[in-house]
């Protein structure tokens, strides 16, 4: 290798390292996508770093991280998966915390429910298809199953009536497209753009399911990434928290 080609190679490596230091790659649970994008926009304007996203269910993102996916931060929709990553030594110590708490809502666009009591319709099993997120991959799916049990509906007797989305976003799609009569979705999703007007709506009481705490972790591979550290700090600040509240989440 000539001296000039070595120098070019060295400069390229320096440039790549500099770019990496100004970028943060965030794995985000699908229910939090819109809020995360707004937070990222505010962060980029203030800090000058670039945010890249990978969106999926918490379960799929956890599996990808466990197998070495190059993410810097994980915005999960639950506590369990960030805690598992922490116990497996993949998380920067003391970085795990709750950034938002979620709520479930029963929602439909089906004209048959116009002016009717959504809760009563669910309890009476007046639906052809009920959409929920996959409880094996999405915390909102676990909460949906707990709601059904709390109101006296046996999910084992509803097998043919329940349609399961890979994520809470797919569950929303099933309802919005009319593929499902109604669905138990994240309340924050009703703040998304282009959501059709609903015909019935029931804000599910917190007492009917376990608290949905959404936690964030800084992954160990990014312990020295200044952009990742800056994003973690911004997420805990007033601007980000105002966006989180505006999207229908709680903070504790």
Briefly characterize the structure:
With 252 residues, the chain is α/β, with parallel strands linked by helices. Helices cover 38% and strands 21% of the residues.
Verbal overview:
The chain has 252 residues and is an alpha/beta fold. It has 2 domains: 3-101 and 212-246, Periplasmic binding protein-like II (D-Maltodextrin-Binding Protein, domain 2), CATH 3.40.190.10; 104-203, D-Maltodextrin-Binding Protein, domain 2 (3-Layer(aba) Sandwich), CATH 3.40.190. Helix content is 38%, strand content 21%. It contains 9 helices and 10 strands. It has helices at residues 3-21, 33-47, 58-66, 80-87, 118-123, 139-150, 168-176, 226-235, 238-246; strands at 23-29, 50-56, 73-75, 97-102, 104-108, 130-133, 162-165, 182-186, 200-203, 212-218. Strands 2-1-3-10-4 form a 5-stranded mixed β-sheet. Strands 7-6-8-5-9 form a 5-stranded mixed β-sheet. Helix 2 (33-47) links the parallel strand 1 (23-29) and strand 2. Helix 2 (33-47) packs across helix 8 and helix 2 (33-47) packs antiparallel against helix 9. It is globular and about 55 Å long. Residues 3-20 have low confidence and may be disordered.
Helix fraction by DSSP (H/I, runs of at least 4): 25-40%
CATH topology of the largest domain: D-Maltodextrin-Binding Protein, domain 2
Strand content: 15-25%
The N- to C-terminal Cα distance equals 58 Å
Helix count from the secondary structure assignment: 9
What's the CATH superfamily of the largest domain, by name?
Periplasmic binding protein-like II
Spell the H/E element sequence. Answer: HEHEHEHEEHEHEHEEEHH
Trace the largest sheet across and list its strands: 2-1-3-10-4
Major sheet description: 5 strands, mixed
Domain count, please report it. 2
Low-confidence stretches are: 3-20
Query: Mean pLDDT score, rounded?
Result: 90
């Amino acid at each position: 290798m000539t001296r000039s080609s070595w120098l070019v190679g060295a400069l390229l490596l320096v440039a790549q390292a500099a770019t990496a230091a100004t970028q943060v790659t965030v794995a985000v649970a699908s229910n939090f996508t819109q809020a995360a994008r707004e937070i990222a926009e505010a962060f980029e304007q203030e800090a000058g770093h670039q945010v890249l996203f990978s969106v999926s269910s918490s379960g799929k993102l956890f599996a990808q991280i466990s197998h070495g996916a190059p993410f810097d931060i994980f915005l999960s929709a639950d506590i369990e998966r960030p805690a598992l990553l922490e116990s497996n030594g993949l998380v920067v110590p003391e970085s795990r915390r709750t950034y938002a708490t979620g709520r479930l809502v029963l929602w439909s666009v089906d004209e048959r429910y116009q002016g009717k009591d959504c809760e009563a319709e669910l309890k009476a099993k007046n639906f052809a298809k009920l959409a929920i997120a996959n409880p094996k991959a999405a915390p909102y799916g676990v909460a949906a199953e707990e709601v059904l049990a709390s109101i006296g509906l046996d999910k084992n007797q509803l097998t043919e009536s329940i349609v399961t989305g890979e994520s809470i976003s797919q569950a929303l799609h099933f309802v919005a497209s009319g593929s499902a009569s109604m669905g138990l979705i994240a309340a924050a999703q009703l703040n998304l753009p282009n959501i059709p007007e609903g015909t019935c709506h029931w804000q599910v009481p917190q007492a009917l399911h376990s608290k949905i705490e959404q936690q964030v972790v800084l992954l160990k591979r990014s312990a020295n990434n200044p952009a990742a550290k800056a994003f973690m700090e911004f997420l805990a600040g007033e601007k980000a928290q105002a966006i989180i509240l505006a999207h229908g989440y709680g903070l504790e």
